Amino acid sequence: MLGKTKREHLVEAVKFFSSKGWTPATSSNFSFRETSKNIVISRNGVDKSKFAVNDLVQVNNSGGLIKSQGEKSSPETLIHTCVYNQFSDVNCVLHTHSPTSTTVSRLCKNKGEISFSNYEILKAFDGIRRHDEEVILPIFPNSDDMSEFCSWLGDYFSKNGFIHGILVEGHGLYTWSNSIDGAKRQVEAFEFLLECELLETSVNRNRGSGD
Ligand SMILES: [Zn+2]
């Protein structure tokens, strides 16, 4: 097939996120579903401005490396496999650490979720056709224990069904879609919405303090 491979396609998306400042200090991780039995995911500790096809590794559906040659997948691999195992239509999971998503996750943590509605850009999300539909972005506490985090995620999915992504407190954004393009579009849409949220909060605070 002519054109880019999925690996090249993902690398291009990662470099775009890096150019936007959304992947600082080797953070963030990215994957796509390769077959029903394995996913391809970024290896750990790579400067994303220099990310290349050979920085991608294969893992099975439980997060174990296939044909390990000393490299490590991201520590957050289990979050990716949890999403793939839950939603059979999801083929790409992307995770960024932007200043905006991190700040909003801390400001809004007590609300537990952010609801976005009446934004034209909502049409960028899978299945959303109207600006007045609602996209919910839940905020999870951060954890260094991936088994614990994935059990929270599994419980949330069981209770709420499909969602487009999550924020992790003081950490960043996860979003997923049935394609690499779709997931990239949703990262951009969430980043835009979170920036609007932050601007609105700031404007409202200034208005409040001026009264
Ligand atoms: Zn992370």
SSE diagram, text form:
Blueprint: H1 6-19, E1 29-33, E2 38-42, E3 56-60, H2 77-86, E4 92-96, H3 99-107, E5 113-116, E6 135-140, H4 146-160, E7 165-168, E8 172-177, H5 180-210
Parallel strand pairs: 6-7
Antiparallel strand pairs: 1-2, 1-4, 2-3, 4-8, 5-6, 7-8
Helix pairs in contact: 2-4, 3-5
The structure holds zinc ion.
Zinc ion (ZN) is lined by residues 27, 76, 95, 97, 171-172.
Order of helices and strands: HEEEHEHEEHEEH
**Largest sheet, strands/sense/barrel:** 8 strands, mixed
Named at the architecture level, the CATH assignment is 3-Layer(aba) Sandwich
- Helix coverage percent: 25-40%
- What class do helices, strands and sheet pairing give? alpha+beta
Bound molecules: zinc ion
Q: Assign an overall shape.
A: globular
Mean pLDDT, all residues: 92
CATH evolutionary superfamily: Class II aldolase/adducin N-terminal domain
Per the CATH scheme, the topology name is L-fuculose-1-phosphate Aldolase
First-last Cα distance: 63 Å
Overall CATH class: Alpha Beta
Strand content: 15-25%
For the biggest β-sheet, the strand order reads 3-2-1-4-8-7-6-5
**Total E-strand runs:** 8
Rg, please? 17 Å
As for the number of domains, it is 1
Counting DSSP H or I runs of 4 or more residues, the number of helices is 5
Poorly predicted runs are none
Describe this entry's structure for a reader:
The protein is α+β, with helices and mostly antiparallel strands. The protein has one domain: L-fuculose-1-phosphate Aldolase (3-Layer(aba) Sandwich). It contains five helices and eight strands, in the order αβββαβαββαββα. It has helices at residues 6-19, 77-86, 99-107, 146-160, 180-210; strands spanning 29-33, 38-42, 56-60, 92-96, 113-116, 135-140, 165-168, 172-177. It has an eight-stranded mixed sheet with strand order 3-2-1-4-8-7-6-5, sandwiched between helices. Strand 6 (135-140), helix 4 and strand 7 (165-168) form a beta-alpha-beta unit. Helix 2 (77-86) packs parallel to helix 4. The longest helix is centred in the last third of the chain and has 31 residues, at 180-210. It is globular. The chain starts with 5 loop residues before the first helix and ends with a helix. The model has no long low-confidence stretch (mean pLDDT 92). It binds zinc ion. The site of zinc ion has 6 residues, from loops.
